Amino acid sequence: MDGNTIEALAARFIASDLDRAQVVLSPDGIIRSWNPGAQILLGHLPDSAIGQSFAIFYSDSDRQSGKPDDDLSRAATYGRYAEEGWRRRLDATEFAADARLIALRNEAGTLLGFGVTIEDITDRKAAEAAVARSELHLRSILATVPDAMIVIDERGQILSFSAAAERLFGYTESEVVGRNIGMMMPDGDRLRHDDYVEHYCRTGERRIIGIGRIVTGKRRDGSEFPMELAVGEARSAGHRIFTGFIRDLTDRQRAELQMKELQSELVHVSRVSAMGTMASTLAHELNQPLTAIANYMEAARDLIAAGEPDLEMLGEAVSESAVEALRAGNIVRRLREFVARGEVEKRVEPLPPMVEEATRLAMTGAHERGVRGLKDLDPDARVALVDRVQIQQVLVNLIRNAVEALEDMPVRDITVSTRLQPDGMIRVAVSDTGPGIDPAIRSRLFDAFNTTKQNGLGLGLSICRTIVETHGGRIGADPRPGGGTILWFTIPSAETSE
Q1: FRET label pair with 107: which of 118, 253, 390, 464, CA 20 to 30 Å apart?
Q2: Is residue 430 within 8 Å of residue 488, measured between CB atoms?
Q3: Which helix (H) or strand (E) holds 82?
């Protein structure tokens, strides 16, 4: 067969491939022959297609615009032309196609016709669109997830880096993708990380994956910070990827430090308040005996001043006085003066931020235990005349008690509320959804050394009562409608106080 004829070139070009259409055209675009794959893909029988223009494979709009002729012209000029576009079957349905046109020339370079290859890529395009949508969805997650999220492969190389991770570590995603995650770890951890990943992939022994732990991260500026790391694993096509969710614990540790400082101050106030409680009790119990001692001494002095005293009466007065210790009366008096004088430095304080700060400190760690903190603040209760630290200590103590009461409850809500009262006092309340207070101990709830805790001293609520009463307020406990307890206290409003 002569290699310079269209028939010879067509015989070499057309194969028995059933997965794609192969068609031979004359120089003017008329179909001369095709393979079985063309009949399957395009739906035309050979007898009905041969002799027609290959424009029957194009949509109506493409034919009207002259695209078939333009494609032939490009193939003739450049030797070949390829595109991904839409083609048409005999039943008028369209499909995404990878279409290629090749100019067929003889040895002298004369154009003898064109070879056309058409492959249906509809499924591939649908898969690519699905991947694109999936990537877009992942991008939206990475942009909005509140915790920092980093995805790495089993070699430790970063695959994706969320917007929150950019803010936390100070890098942009383009700066870190493809680099090892160790760049965000202190030196010691960085050296061990790759060994850990390799050990896990080899043995399956988990140390962080699916468990979570507190570790140290390193920002772009070199500063280190505590963080909570939780890692998940996924497998695809024999490969593993690891997704790390990171939460910055800097603020929480700072809050815990403030809590410890506040508790330290509370210990100091506790000692003073405990002394006040004991002094008041002693004063009540010893007031009459001390008065009697003073009377006996006065009588003894009168007897001596009168001259020739009745020794029997004088001895009786001295004996009775000796039973008691006048020194105890002086100690009680000094303690009572100390308690009455106190160490409260009242100032005008904005109430909402004071409550907000105390609540935040008291709720440290409570959210992780499923406790939800709510606030209901009266806009009219704006300022109070108080010692800020001491009142915050009262509020922290009441909230912490409420948190402990919710340990085994299905609903764990704590609400802190403020209300301005008609008498010029502000009522601050902490309500919980706990089991409530046993009525048998409610009347003694704020007494010293009264506690239901196994290792408690029973001074916490007693100290709260002392602080509140020193401010001229009252403290109490009521059952909450629907179950639970409301612990409340009152403090003077600065807007109605002189």
Answers
A1: 118
A2: yes
A3: strand 80-88
32/114 Cα distance (integer angstroms): 10
Q: Which of 179, 244, 256, 178 is nearest to 217 (CA)?
A: 244
Q: Which of left, alpha, beta for 97 (phi over 0: left; psi -120 to 50: alpha)?
A: beta
Looking at residue 389, its amino acid is V
Tokens standing for 342?
């106190």
222: which 2 tokens? 């070199």
Q: Average the pLDDT over 80-97 and give the result.
A: 89
Rounded Cα distance between 47 and 488, Å, is 96
Using CA atoms, how far residue 395 sits from 178, 414, 494, in Å, is 50, 12, 18
Would you give the distance in Å from CA 258 to the centre of its chain? 21
Residue 299 has pLDDT above 60, yes or no: yes
Residues contacting residue 342 through CB under 8 Å, at least 6 positions apart: 470
Contact 227, 233 (CB under 8 A): no
The encoded tokens of residue 68 equal 């078939």
**38 close to 60: Cβ distance less than 8 angstroms:** no
Q: Which of 91, 83, 33 is nearest to 62 (CA)?
A: 83
Contacts of 344 (CB under 8 A, 6+ apart): 387, 390, 470, 471
The pLDDT, as a whole number, for residue 388 is 86
Q: Both tokens of residue 160?
A: 């994706």
β-strands 148-153, 158-161 pairing: antiparallel
What phi-psi label fits residue 51: left (phi over 0), alpha (psi between -120 and 50 degrees) or beta?
left
**Could you tell me the CA-to-CA distances from 52 to 21, 32, 49, 55, 57 in Å, in that order?**
16, 9, 6, 8, 10
Strand extents, DSSP E, 106-223: 111-120, 148-153, 158-161, 213-218
- Torsion of the alpha carbons at 66, 71, 72 and 73, rounded to the nearest 10: 90
* Residue labelled with tokens 């949509």: 59
Return the minimum-mean-pLDDT range out of 3-7, 157-161, 179-183: 3-7
Backbone angles phi and psi of 189, in degrees to 5: -70, -35
pTM, full prediction: 0.40
Helical ranges in 213-372 per DSSP H:
250-305, 311-323, 326-341, 351-362
CA 43 from centroid of its chain's CA atoms? 58
What's the N-to-C CA distance of the chain in angstroms?
Answer: 119
In angstroms and rounded to an integer, the radius of gyration of the C-alpha atoms of the chain is 44
Give the Cα separation of 320 and 313 in Å (integer).
11
Count of C-beta atoms within a 10 Å radius of residue 310:
11
Token pair belonging to 357? 């700060």
Alpha helices in 363-423 (DSSP H): 388-405
If one compares 449 and 141, the residue with the highest pLDDT of the two is 141
d(CA 325, CA 36): 123
Which residues have C-beta within 8 Å of that of residue 275, sequence separation ≥ 6? 335, 338, 339
CB atoms within 10 A of CB 444: 12
